[in-house]
Each structure stands twice: as C-alpha cells, then as structure tokens.
Amino acid sequence: MSRSAGLLVALVVTLGLAAHGRDRLDAWVDSTVLPPVLSEVGVEVRGRDGTLLRAFPVEDGRVRLATRLDQVDPRFIAMLIAYEDKRFYRHGGVDLRATLRASVQAVRYGRVVSGGSTLSMQVARLLENSGTGNVSGKLRQMRLAMALERRLSKDEILTLYLHHAPYGGAIEGLRAASLMWFGKEPKRLTQAEAALLIALPQSPESRRPDRHPDAARKARARVLARLDLAPDLRQPDVPLKMRNMPQDAPHLAATLRRDAPLVLRHGTTIDPQLQRQMQALAGRAVAGQAAGVSAAILVADHQSGDVLAYVGSPAFNAENGALGFVDMTTASRSPGSTLKPLIYALAFDEGLVHPDTLINDAPVAFGRYAPQNFDGQFRGMLTVRDALTLSLNIPPVLLTNELGPARLMAGLRRAGTQPQLPAGQAGLAVALGGVGMSLRDLVQLYAGIAQGGQSLPLRTDPNRAEAALQRFVSPVAAWQVAHILAGIAPPKGAAARAGEIAYKTGTSYGYRDAWSVGFDGRHVVGVWLGRPDGTPVPGAFGGALAAPVLFEAFDRISTRRTPLPRPPNDALILGTANLPEPLREFRSRDAVFAAAPDSPVVTFPPDGAVLRRSGFGVPLKLRAGTLPLTVLVNGAPMITQLNARDAVLPLEDAGFTRISVVDAQGRSTSVEIRLD
C-alpha cells in the first residue's frame, strides 16, 4: 500500500471515529432529562400606570418575579454577556476555549483564576441547584447546558438566567433584585447598578452590600474594570439596606389573588402615588387613638367608577393582633346618619317635601319605636334643609314612614349597594343606621348622588366591561341633596371652603363607627374609623374624627377642586312662603286625616266607657277647642253656646249613647259610652 493510500485510510478511520464519537455525544445529550424549565414566579398586582403595587413570593418564600427581555435595559444584557460569556451566541452550551483557558490557568496558578462556565451552564446549575465543586457536577452541567441549547433558544436560556440568578437572601432573578436593592425596574438601571447586579450572583451572600459593602464595592469595580468602563466618581455608594417589596393596596391585592389564583398579573385602577398618600393618612388618623382603633379610606373617580385608592386598614401587619389584616372597606357596619341624604332625595322625588318645606322636629312615637335626636333636644318647626344640615333624626324617620322602609331599601339596591338586614325585614330604624353597609357601599351611594342620581358601579379592574347606568333618584333630587350637603361647614382648619365639597358624617349607635363621605365634581371619598371587632370607641363622632380625614384626603387628591354641578333647569328654587301650598309644611298622610292639634278632646268619659246610672247625669270634661262649644247627644243638640270645658249631661236611659262636641271653628270630636 502506498503512503498516500495509508494516509487516506488513516484519515477515513479518524473521521469515522470522530463521527462515531459525535453520534455517541449527540445521543448522550439528546437523552438528557431536563429539569422543569417553566419558572415559578410570584403573583403581581399593578397600578393604573403599570407600577408594581404588590408582589407575592413563590411557594417556598423566595422572591422571584416574571421577567421578559424587553423589561431589561439592553445595556445590562450586553454587559452581562461581555462579562460572563462573550461567545454566548456562538457556542452550543459549552465554550471549549473558555474551559481550556480556565483549566490551564488553574494548573499554572494552583487556584481558579477565571471560570469556564457559560451562561447556559450556570442556568443548568441553577435549575438543578447543583454545586460546582466536583468533576461529576461540572460534567452534568455541561451535558444539561448542551441539552438546553438544543431545545431552547438563546433568548429563552437568557430569560431563565434572569429568573433564577441569586442576589442574596431570598431574592432570585433580576427584577426582584433591581426592585429590592435599588427600588426600580431593571429597565432603568445605571451602569454602576448594573455592574453590581452582574457581580452579585457569583457570590450572593459574601457580596451582599447590606452586610459586606466593601466586598460589594470591589466586585462592582472588577466588573467595570474588566468591561473597560471607567467608574463614575459621582456614582452613589452600594445600597446599604435591602428594600422591602412594594406592599401598596395590600387588602385589594390579597382579594385579587384569592379570587383568581391562576392569574399571575393583575391590573388595577389604583393610582400608586395617591394610594401611598392615603395609606399614610390612615396611619396618622389612628395615631394617638385608643388601642385597637382602625381606619379605612376609599377614593374613587365618580365619573368613571375607577377606585383610585383602597386602604382597608392603617397597616397590613400584626401590630394590632390580626386586626390589621381585616379589610374594613368591605366590612358590614351600621352607617349611622349617612343614609339620610338618600331618604331626603327619595322624599323630594315623591313630592313629599322640598328643601325649604317646614317639618316638625318634635317627639313622635311609632308604636314602641320613639326616635330621639342625638343630643336629646327638639327644634320644633324648621326647614328640611336645616334638618339635614343639622342631621336631626326625627324628620328622616317621619319621611321614611311615609316612603315605607321597603322603598328606602329598594333605593339603596338601585344605587348599587348591598345592604344587609340583621333581622331580615326593614323597619323605620333603617333610616338611622339599622342596616349593614360597607364603606364601599357608601362610596358607591354618594358617587351615584354626585352623578345626578344614577349609579355607576365602582371598579378596581380596568378591563371590566362597563355596566349600564341605573337611575335611583332624579337629577333634581340629587342636586338638591348635594347642594344642602355642600352648605355644611368644613371642619376647623380644613383647606377647602364651604360649597366646594358636599359631605355627610355619621356615628353609629354606641360610638362603634365614625363615618364621613363626600364628593366634589370629580372625586368621591369615604372614611371609616372604629374597631374592627365592633367594640365601642367612646367619644368617636364622625364629625370630630372622620370629617377632618376626609378633607385632608381631598387635599391630597388635588389642591384645585372640580366644582360641583349647577342646578338642573327644572329645579324649583323657592323660599318656603313661595312654595305651592302642599309643600310649605310637611304633614304625613295620617296627619291629614287626624284631628288638628288644638281640636276639642273629650277627657271624660273616655270612649267605650261603661257607666252606671246615678240619677245625677253624666259628667263631661273637655280639653282644647275654641269656645263656645256645642254638645250633641246621638246627633241632637243638647247644649249650645257652652263657654266652659265641663258640664253635666242629663243622661239616664240605658244603652249606647254617642256624645259629640263641636267647637266654634267647626272642629269636632266624639265618644261612645254605655249606661247600665
């Protein structure tokens, strides 16, 4: 055999052995069982502008957030690849040149000088949580890295690294690290910040800047030096404290996660900046209060129905036991006097009264129910406007008696609220808070009044389909109520002037709940203070506690008020004397058919009395009535021109007798007796 033929045979044998080895390698790589590559990430809740409100940890308590490449500054990706794996886009999972270089350096210097691990190999190690200190572990990473390269794209492998790289403590992944170390999304990292986050995963605990700041600074400097990036002398120091993940609107976030556990990202209508301001305001509202007192604040745009701030308690923690975790925006409580505006609006629509109708604030009883004013006093005749402004109790009960409690309950439901009746049936006590309502219900109700008497359901989901508006009072009645509420003086020290905010306060029975709800031309705010367990808070008045918080909330929303609407064209704006006769003074249907207050009254004998015949006649005693009086027995005059209020009637015949008395004004009364 010639020499050339021998070389050819050798070449063929060599290629054959290489092909066989390649085939064996391919089979070895292709048979690799991959670990799960679908990264478990925490549920995120975001504000209306996309800002992160709250992120939940994954099941084992680690903080890992979903990350897309387009959420990361491209300069960070370029720096990461240049530092960790220059030939990332050219190798198949293992960089032989880098591995050979690392091996030679390790033999030459007796220690590891540079790593040979590619980003794909690091992903393999992170997915299996395997170490790097032995040959078998390194071989397994190489095999898995090549298998990943064959089944995933480069971008998918890079995304896995961005999810699983460790950054100290329970932080995994770039987004969580960027938020917890720098308080920003990785789209906005500076060069120095990017350098630190490139260095941390190599030794996340020994380089933690909050525990080992010098090591963190040196590691950051090495990254910048290797990438030939001059450090900016003005760059800030490494972060010396790990931030907490955002926990804004925590009660809403918990509800969204509970109701839709498979959804990883929840969008909301919440304004993040306003939310944080309202959370701080709730904390100040309970500062200095008795132990266990909580607060809740809800802010909405009543033109769109968007909830802009949602504060269920001052702090979502266990400082007050479990009470901080109770969402008091949804808790059913007694609304106190906050339903009175709806009662008056319904009465306006029914034609029972007008804001300038006179109504009698006087003692009254409905069977065993005898409502009292908060201060125990009575004002007598006054306008409906003043009755609502002073939040008197007797007038709204009188109107509810005319409307019927069922009509009030129907009005509440049409306004989009969900009232809860403790006894299952509505009575007159509903007018003064004898029904369960949540803060969200009350904000919903007042938003409808602000919108001219039509309800637009509040929403926290920006993608929820718009619901049809439902009218529950007329535009005129809604404006009349709003106009009265806007005339209530603001709390002392409030920045808003009278007429800018229409609001009402309420205090439930036993000082258990203090309320204030109000609106301007754009926003509606509701405030609640009390104890979540329902125990009293002595001296907790809605006007003293909740109203100042309400007005401060409006100050945080905007220093420029959106004006309240002008009156509708068909609004009847007249003084009492110029009103139509039936609207000048309120009289209930029962009162129309009842005797006038100064009509004559027979005090003896009482109606239905059975008397023995004495031979001296029957004494007659009278009260009220204008003299002279006329007395009739069984329809026939017995005494005329009686100028006294007592007489003796010569009655001796056994049986039934009707005695009637008519005064000089023609007003009459009668009783029926029986003589034995």
UniProtKB/TrEMBL annotation:
All residue ranges annotated as the Glycosyl transferase family domain in the record: 59-227
Question: What name appears for this protein in its UniProt entry?
Answer: peptidoglycan glycosyltransferase
InterPro entries assigned to the protein according to its UniProt record, in alphabetical order: Beta-lactam/transpept-like, Glyco_trans_51, Glycosyltr_51/Transpeptidase, Lysozyme-like_dom_sf, PBP_1c, PBP_C, PBP_transglycosylase, PCN-bd_Tpept
Query: What cellular-component terms does GO give this entry?
Result: outer membrane-bounded periplasmic space
Keyword flag Transmembrane helix: no
Might you give the EC number(s) for this enzyme? Answer: 2.4.99.28
Task: Give the reactions, separated by semicolons, that this protein catalyses.
Answer: [GlcNAc-(1->4)-Mur2Ac(oyl-L-Ala-gamma-D-Glu-L-Lys-D-Ala-D-Ala)](n)-di-trans,octa-cis-undecaprenyl diphosphate + beta-D-GlcNAc-(1->4)-Mur2Ac(oyl-L-Ala-gamma-D-Glu-L-Lys-D-Ala-D-Ala)-di-trans,octa-cis-undecaprenyl diphosphate = [GlcNAc-(1->4)-Mur2Ac(oyl-L-Ala-gamma-D-Glu-L-Lys-D-Ala-D-Ala)](n+1)-di-trans,octa-cis-undecaprenyl diphosphate + di-trans,octa-cis-undecaprenyl diphosphate + H(+)
Return the Gene3D superfamilies for the record.
Answer: Biosynthetic peptidoglycan transglycosylase-like (1.10.3810.10), DD-peptidase/beta-lactamase superfamily (3.40.710.10)
Q: Where is the Penicillin-binding protein transpeptidase domain?
A: 296-512
List this protein's GO terms for biological process: peptidoglycan biosynthetic process; proteolysis
PANTHER family membership: BINDING PROTEIN TRANSPEPTIDASE, PUTATIVE-RELATED, PENICILLIN-BINDING PROTEIN 1C
Which UniProt keywords are given for this protein, alphabetically ordered?
Carboxypeptidase, Glycosyltransferase, Hydrolase, Multifunctional enzyme, Protease, Transferase
Annotated Penicillin-binding C-terminal domain residues = 594-673
Instruction: Copy the pathway line from the protein's UniProt record.
Output: Cell wall biogenesis; peptidoglycan biosynthesis
Gene Ontology terms, MF aspect: carboxypeptidase activity; penicillin binding; peptidoglycan glycosyltransferase activity
Question: Which family does the record assign?
Answer: In the C-terminal section; belongs to the transpeptidase family. In the N-terminal section; belongs to the glycosyltransferase 51 family.
The source's superkingdom equals Bacteria
